[in-house]
From TrEMBL, chain A:
The lineage of its organism: Bacteria, Bacillati, Actinomycetota, Actinomycetes, Streptosporangiales. Residues 150-221 form the HTH luxR-type domain. InterPro entries: CheY-like_superfamily (IPR011006), NreC/VraR/RcsB-like_REC (IPR058245), Sig_transdc_resp-reg_receiver (IPR001789), Tscrpt_reg_LuxR_C (IPR000792), WalR-like (IPR039420). Keywords: DNA-binding, Phosphoprotein, Transcription, Transcription regulation. One of its GO terms (biological process) is phosphorelay signal transduction system. Residues 9-130 form the Response regulatory domain. The modification 4-aspartylphosphate is found at residue 59. GO terms for molecular function: DNA binding. This is LuxR family two component transcriptional regulator.
Automatic annotation (TrEMBL), chain B:
The keyword Transmembrane helix applies. It comes from the Bacteria. It comes from Murinocardiopsis flavida. Residues 257-321 form the Signal transduction histidine kinase subgroup 3 dimerisation and phosphoacceptor domain. This is histidine kinase. Keywords: ATP-binding, Kinase, Membrane, Nucleotide-binding, Phosphoprotein, Transferase, Transmembrane, Transmembrane helix, Two-component regulatory system. Its EC number is 2.7.13.3. The chain crosses the membrane at residues 25-54, 74-99, 142-175, 195-223. Gene3D superfamilies: 1.20.5.1930, Histidine kinase-like ATPase, C-terminal domain (3.30.565.10). InterPro entries: HATPase_C_sf, Put_sensor_dom, Sensor_HK_TwoCompSys, Sig_transdc_His_kin_sub3_dim/P.
Length: 224, 452
């Protein structure tokens, strides 16, 4: 566990006033300090420049265009502040959104979640903490849908390996995956090695290869 | 000369310089060429309606002396005549109509096309087309009028012309025979003065003769145009154009309305519901586990979550947000992800398409995939959407059992309706045993309508 310099400073971007207040309340309840809460992407960029927060939680669909303003702002912010943790909330599953975001800054300290996840407060907060700790969180539904796409290089993976990859994408450690799938940690390690090999990932001893594996997945979803 | 040139004798009649224009001569040409055509038509028509004519003489005879035993023969003649006229009449009317359309150019400058459709190859196809279209029978009606009414009017005109010439000759005759020798209608012409007056009257009549000639030519021309012209193609296609534009506007309006409802639900009910569920989730944390309130709050939280999922589905059904936000490829990908069987999606759409086109294409694929899941028993399906030369081609293919009937299900009819509103086409191949392929083409011009 990394030492946590308390408290985490958060900027919130969400155009719905009610939900923005609800989210602020939620984060405050768990000890985060919400230093700014804004309603559109421009204001978000301004707030980050001014307040230098540790974490941004942003809605993807915001005024004025109601398409992917929040996402583009998030990608820009990640470029400008590589260490900034970002969690993007989406109305619906769209893996290209996730890939846009995960492509930024090595895919570390980012999360892509369906907006509905916030109502499972404890899980949501656990995801936020995971991202702050340097992890990557991709909504389970995105992963599930990706797994259903029958395309290379997914085809090269066995059923079990896909399952393991799904857990990786959800941000679980090997130990956690072992527990979830009722297998030994060594077995999970073997699966991970096999996945990385099958996805042609360089055998450098960078722990971030796990994230790269997820990225490989997401990119397949974007092809064509 | 700002007034437009007249197009028919009717238009020319009211002009002051009518008599000096070419219209009297054109009209005369038309009127003088009518009798031969009329005579030949009458002859042939008389031939094929001979049984009717015979029956008619019988009826006239019977008026003088009733003769019941011939009733059967009478019926036979009437039926035979009907068959002959029905079978051979069009064969007379068709070439006549073609000729008359040519002749009509003498007195009618407006373009004119026949109302005939183009038959398929083969004699049978020709027969079926010609004998079932109204244009043929209107032409037969014209032939009958030309054979019966036209001669009467022509004779009337002829009499008028003879009268004029005769009147003009009166002074000459009187001059030769001497006054008091010539009887004119009811009295004797006594003086040369009277004779000259009559002569001048005749000359005037002759000069004014072009008016009735043009009148007859004009009336004949108008009748010919009414019976021999198909509904003007220009007119018809203009009407159709207006209709399809208004249909397209309606579809656009529906599409816009759906987007508005989706936006309203998203901004209003959905947001409130998420916030409420979030608060219930927080409340759950604050209530000590095991207390009676804990269960009911947990229950409320679960129900709220379920309601959220339902509302999300409802909104997706009204108008998928992802379609508005990310365009057709992303929306089709989502459809495929949600399908019960594996669906492969290939798209090549380099630009955003007008909203109503995207909406229609999405609807088509959505319906098609629903059908695949419901009826085909397919194990996998493929969706392809390509923009080729400003036409969006959407194909949905499955490896199921086939045998889908485009006329059978309301779903497919609905699809085809929706596609045709966009000037698109839908074809389907679904042989028994499969596979099934649904192909839809939607034209999407570069300049989208403003509503997009």
């Amino acid at each position: 566990m990394p030492p946590e310099p308390a408290p985490v400073r958060v900027v919130l971007a969400e155009d719905g006033v009610l939900l923005r207040e609800g989210l602020a309340g939620l984060l405050g309840r768990f000890g985060f300090e919400v230093v700014g809460a804004v309603g559109d992407a421009e204001a978000l960029k301004g707030a980050v420049a001014e307040l230098a927060p540790d974490l941004v939680v942003t809605d993807i669909r915001m005024p004025p265009g109601f398409t992917d303003e929040g996402l583009r702002a998030a990608v820009e912010l990640r470029r400008a502040h590589p260490g900034l943790a970002v969690i993007a909330l989406s109305q619906y599953v769209e893996q290209s959104y996730a890939s846009d975001l995960l492509d930024s800054s090595d895919g570390k300290r980012v999360g892509y979640l369906l907006k509905d996840r916030v109502v499972d407060v404890e899980e949501f907060v656990a995801n936020v903490r995971h991202v702050l700790d340097g992890g990557t969180v991709v909504d389970p539904q995105v992963v599930r849908q990706l797994l259903r796409r029958r395309r290379d290089p997914l085809l090269r993976l066995s059923e079990r390996e896909r399952e393991v990859l799904a857990r990786i994408a959800e941000g679980h450690s090997n130990a956690a995956i072992a527990k979830l799938l009722y297998v030994s940690e060594a077995a999970v390690g073997k699966h991970v090695g096999s996945i990385l090999a099958k996805l042609d990932l360089p055998p450098a001893d960078d722990t971030n290869r796990r994230v790269l594996a997820v990225l490989a997945y997401l990119r397949t979803g974007r092809e064509q | 000369m700002s007034t437009p040139q007249p197009q028919t004798p009717f238009g020319a009649l009211t002009r002051r310089r009518f008599l000096l224009s070419r219209w009297p001569w054109r009209s005369l040409g038309f009127v003088l060429t009518s009798p031969p055509v009329s005579a030949v038509t009458a002859g042939v028509l008389a031939l094929i309606s001979m049984p009717w004519l015979i029956a008619l003489t019988y009826v006239i005879d019977a008026g003088a002396e009733p003769n019941p035993p011939q009733l059967g023969l009478l019926m036979f003649l009437i039926v035979l005549g009907t068959v002959l006229v029905g079978a051979l009449g069009p064969l007379v009317a068709l070439p006549l109509a073609a000729l008359e359309r040519l002749r009509l150019r003498l007195v009618d400058f407006r373009p004119m096309a026949s109302g005939h459709r183009t038959p398929g190859p083969g004699l049978w196809a020709w027969v079926r087309t010609r004998y079932t279209e109204s244009a043929t029978w209107r032409e037969l009606a014209y032939a009958v009028l030309l054979a019966t009414v036209a001669p009467v009017l022509f004779v009337g005109l002829l009499v008028l012309g003879f009268a004029a010439v005769t009147l003009m000759l009166i002074p000459v005759i009187v001059w030769q025979e001497g006054p008091g020798q010539v009887d004119f209608i009811w009295s004797t012409i006594d003086t040369m003065g009277q004779a000259v007056t009559i002569g001048v009257l005749g000359a005037a009549l002759l000069v004014l003769l072009p008016y009735p000639v043009a009148l007859l030519a004009g009336a004949h021309g108008a009748l010919a145009r009414a019976l021999l012209q198909g509904r003007g193609r220009g007119e018809l296609s203009a009407e159709l154009g207006a209709v399809s534009r208004s249909r397209a506007r309606l579809v656009d309006a529906f599409e816009a309305e759906r987007r508005r409802i989706e936006r309203d639900l998203h901004d209003g009910a959905q947001q409130r519901l998420v916030t409420l569920t979030l608060q219930l989730g927080l409340a759950r944390l604050d209530i000590p586990a095991g207390s009676p309130a804990a269960d009911s709050v947990a229950d409320a939280h679960d129900q709220a979550k379920q309601l959220m999922a339902e509302l999300r589905e409802l909104i997706r059904g009204i108008h998928p947000q992802i379609l508005t936000d990310r365009g057709l490829p992303a929306a089709l990908g989502q459809l495929a992800d949600r399908a019960a069987i594996p669906v492969e999606v290939r798209t090549h759409i380099p630009r955003r398409l007008p909203g109503h086109i995207e909406g229609t294409a999405y609807f088509v694929v959505s319906e098609a995939l629903t059908n695949v899941a419901k009826h085909s028993g397919a194990a996998a399906a493929e969706v392809a959407a390509h923009l080729v030369a400003d036409v969006l081609v959407v194909e949905v293919r499955d490896d199921g059992s086939g045998g889908a009937d485009p006329d059978g299900g309301t779903g497919l009819t609905g699809l085809s309706d929706r596609v045709s509103v966009m000037d698109g086409t839908m074809v389907m191949s679904s042989p028994p045993g499969g596979p099934t392929l649904l192909r839809v083409e939607l034209p999407c011009p570069q300049n989208p309508p403003p509503s997009a």
